[in-house]
TrEMBL record:
SUPFAM superfamilies: Ankyrin repeat (SSF48403). InterPro entries: Ankyrin_rpt, Ankyrin_rpt-contain_sf, PP1_regulatory_subunit_27. PROSITE patterns: ANK_REP_REGION (PS50297), ANK_REPEAT (PS50088). It comes from hydrothermal vent metagenome. This is Inversin protein alternative isoform, putative. Pfam families: Ank_2.
Length: 152
């Protein structure tokens, strides 16, 4: 039985940690991977169940990149999950381990519809990543001209 079936069969268990361990997930770090998996799959209902059960909307993965759930929603082009995470208080200026914000993620991934929403919500365009580049600089560097229409 895969994790999706496990969660669907139990309709999101109140004792989720015990069942996640039984499925091979051993810690909160792994829970991020589980939620990221459901983001990638576009399963908004399961993502909602985790957040509504107290999983931190601003959680990030451990390791080299440290991306947030919001970064993942952008990366995989899941606008409904992106909107939900923002409604639930996701930090639109969250910096991952290399200094990338969700706005920068949208630029690198070539997803101006996400970038435009972030800017409309007040994303800080002046934040620079570890190499000193801000959103507009990245849009120019990577030839993402659609972003230049709404970036300052």
């Amino acid at each position: 039985m895969d994790l999706s079936e496990l969660i669907n069969n139990y309709k999101f268990l109140s004792n989720k940690e015990e069942h996640l361990k039984a499925a091979g997930f051993e810690s909160d770090i792994d829970i991020f991977k589980v939620v990221a998996h459901f983001i990638r799959e576009g399963n908004l209902e399961i993502v909602k169940q985790f957040i509504e059960s107290g999983y931190d909307v601003n959680s990030s993965e451990s390791g080299d990149f440290g991306s947030s759930l919001l970064h993942n929603a952008i990366r995989y082009g899941k606008m409904d999950i992106f909107d939900y995470l923002i409604e639930q208080g996701a930090d639109i200026d969250f910096m991952d381990a290399v200094g990338w914000t969700p706005l920068m993620e949208s630029i690198i991934d070539g997803k101006p519809e996400f970038g435009a929403k972030l800017v409309a919500k007040g994303a800080d365009q002046t934040i620079a990543n570890q190499r000193g580049a801000n959103a507009k600089m990245l849009a120019m560097k990577f030839g993402q001209s659609a972003f230049l229409e709404f970036l300052d």
